[in-house]
Amino acid sequence: MARLARLMLHVFFRELEVTGLERIPRGVPLVFVANHNNSVVDAVLLLALPGACPRMLAKNTLFSHPVMGPLLALVGALPVYRRQDAGADASRNFETFAHCREVLAGGGQIALFPEGRSHNETRRQPIKSGAARIVLDAGLQGLPGVRIVPVGLNYEAKDRFRSRVWVCVGHGVDPTAESVLHREAPRAAVRALTERIAVALEDVTPGVESRQWGPESGEATHLAWRWLGGDILALPVFILGCALNWIPYRIPGWISDRLSTTPDEPATYKLLAGLLAFPLAWAAEAAIAARFAGPAWGLAMTVLAPTSGYAALRLRERWKW
To answer: Measuring CA to CA, which residue among 194, 78, 175, 93 is closest to residue 136?
Structure first.
């Protein structure tokens, strides 16, 4: 699932830059916390983060979604029951906290969005105390060494296909002082650690406009260009890629336009719709080729459809179309 997440992001974003990976502590249980203003895409970025393998916390209503439910099960996500969600029993969060303790006790990792909901504000929203409570509860259970890792997700244009994103990993937060305070003043300890998490998140979300970007996909595009041999040889590849991928390329946009109601939803609909539309289209094209031209052509189509489509995408960007 992590490899699938990286592949999806590599296609969806024109450029994905990750900094601060060396700050991720090794050999200790980790709690990743991130800002949350692009719905499911935020979670996909955390799943794809090199050096991380977290169990995601997600609102319980997503587990009954026909597409998201199976994906959440595959990544071992844990449900969070929010009072504002219809029919949610917030008392069941004690079960989720117990699962978090088990994961951390085994040296594992969890990830959550302490703002509590995806939003479209330009600044970080007030964060909830859940992350602090999970970490401090783990300390009470005799699990030393837990570290909190802030991750900033900075989007150039979060609703636009082939835009850019900068993922910034911050310095880990050591909760030892709050763990000591927690034995005598639990509420004060939770407030203090929550504030430290808020400050850590503020440091890693300066906004994508503050990032000094390198040349846009320069080396990869140059290599592809050399391999394709320039305009004359590239044009047939471009035409083939468009012909085999035009319909699944358009479907996610159509779905997003009709279903999105807030600015943090389009990228999620596009990503999930593309995850279904492209493999289904490629399978249909391979089946048609095999039926009318033989199994060898069917096998060739399974390779040609995705590779020519990706080449066409890169050529389109090179030609500024």
So the answer is: 175
Distance CA 241, CA 202 (A): 42
β-bridge mates for residue 150, sequence order: 33
* pLDDT tens for each residue of 47-80: 999 988 899 999 998 898 888 899 999 999 999 9
Quote the CA–CA distance of 92 and 59 in Å, as a whole number: 12
The rounded distance, in Å, linking the Cα atoms of 82 and 69 is 17
Task: State the SS3 of 48-60.
Answer: CCCCCCCEEEEEH
Q: What single string gives the DSSP state of each residue in 90-151?
A: GGGHHHHHHHHHHHHHTT-EEEE-TT-S----SSPPPPPSHHHHHHHHHHHTT-TT-EEEEE
Instruction: Write down the pTM of the prediction.
Output: 0.87
Topology of the domain covering 2-210: Glycerol-3-phosphate (1)-acyltransferase (3.40.1130)
Angle of CA points 155, 164, 264, to nearest 5°: 40
Answer whether residue 219 shows pLDDT above 60.
Answer: no
Residue 15 DSSP SS3: strand
Where in the chain are the domains?
Answer: 2-210, 218-318
| Banded model confidence at residue 234, pLDDT cuts 50, 70, 90 | confident
Distance between CA atoms of residues 311 and 242, nearest Å: 10
Q: Does residue 53 contact residue 37 with C-beta atoms inside 8 Å?
A: no
* Apex 237 CA angle, 236 and 242, nearest 5: 100
